[in-house]
Amino acid sequence: MTGFSANLGFLWADLPLPDAIRAAHRAGFDAVECHWPYDFDPAAVKAALDETGLAMLGLNTNRGKPGENGLSALPGREVEARAEIDRAIAYARAIGCGAIHVMAGYGKGAVADAIFIGNLTYACQTAPELTILIEPLNRYDAPGYFLAGTAQAADLMIKAHQPNLRLMFDCYHLQIMEGDLSRRLEKLLPLIGHVQIAAVPDRGPPDHGEVDYRHIVGVLRDLGWDRPLGAEYKPSGPTDASLGWLDLLRAV
Ligand SMILES: O=C(O)[C@H](O)C(=O)CO
Ligand SMILES: [Mg+2]
């Protein structure tokens, strides 16, 4: 049966992270993931993970100054970008989290490409035991974000040539940018480190909109994908009232 990871950047985002972990456990999630956990004491986060038995699958590097969306592809910001990578690695190690999404920021062109590859290589080699993720974001939510498609991501991964560098396949962003999700999942499977889901286009629970996730869950299962899918959607009210989709997708 397919498992699901609650993305606590959006689900139970009104609770302190340790309590959000407990809420995800009560709701029956198989794992959790987050965006930016840095305001919370890693010991308290680890205690909640140990208490519930849930794994924290991933966290993000910090985004930088207000209005920025990551630093790792930005010329002249390498020192800060690597400090944020170091901070993310230390936090991930402290709580036993397996993956870090290194956020690129609003760069472009060959210079940004080279800088991003350098910073990704640094992250991969500093923490060879962790998976380092890169994630294409859609042009509506993040106009100008450096990484905007799977071909670009695959090209970066070939150039960086690091065994622990993987693609975050966020079905929400990639349906908007590229579509053809079933064939794309099949083709890119060896590059994928984590899969996320949300309704398109409203980023609500994955039970409506233009993607039928019953089909996508079946495709992934048939491809042999056996890791929890990240529920990274924005509930329109209390998270506990938004979870009808869980039984629907578990039944696939
Ligand atoms: O927004 C997303 O899809 C991401 O997964 C993220 O980590 C924050 O931008
Ligand atoms: Mg995502």
From TrEMBL:
Q: Which Pfam families match?
A: AP_endonuc_2
Keyword list (alphabetical) reads: Isomerase
| Segments forming domain Xylose isomerase-like TIM barrel | 21-247
**Keyword Transport listed:** no
Database matches in SUPFAM superfamilies? Xylose isomerase-like
Highest taxon, organism lineage? Bacteria
Q: Which GO terms describe its molecular function?
A: hydroxypyruvate isomerase activity
Question: Can you supply a Gene Ontology BP term from the record?
Answer: glyoxylate metabolic process
Active site, per annotation: 135 (proton donor/acceptor), 232 (proton donor/acceptor)
Which Gene3D superfamilies does this chain map to?
Answer: Divalent-metal-dependent TIM barrel enzymes
- Keyword Isomerase on entry: yes
Q: Which residues cross the membrane?
A: none
Q: What protein family does this chain belong to?
A: Belongs to the hyi family.
Name under which the protein is recorded: TIM barrel protein
Provenance organism: Paracoccus amoyensis
